[in-house]
Amino acid sequence: VPLNIELKMEVWDSPNSAGVVIDAIRCCKLALDRGLSGTIVGPSAYFMKSPPIQYSDEEARVRTEAFIAGQEEECPVSLPELESVEIEG
Fold it and tell me: Do 77 and 52 form a contact (C-beta atoms < 8 A)?
């Protein structure tokens, strides 16, 4: 399926962040090529500020390298159920 993505990033350290974003996109492409969907836990823990599962930097790096090498395909991840709350207004 053709996919067009437009991305704009405005941060103080954007020259440093560009490489991180490119690597995250590469991991997403690997997941798509492998037929995976959902959260890729290792790479999201390594590249993102608020991943669904937090690991130490070293553990996240190891999991990311394993994912890239095709040794770990961990999608989808089971997340805890969230409780819905009704707001009266």
Answer: yes
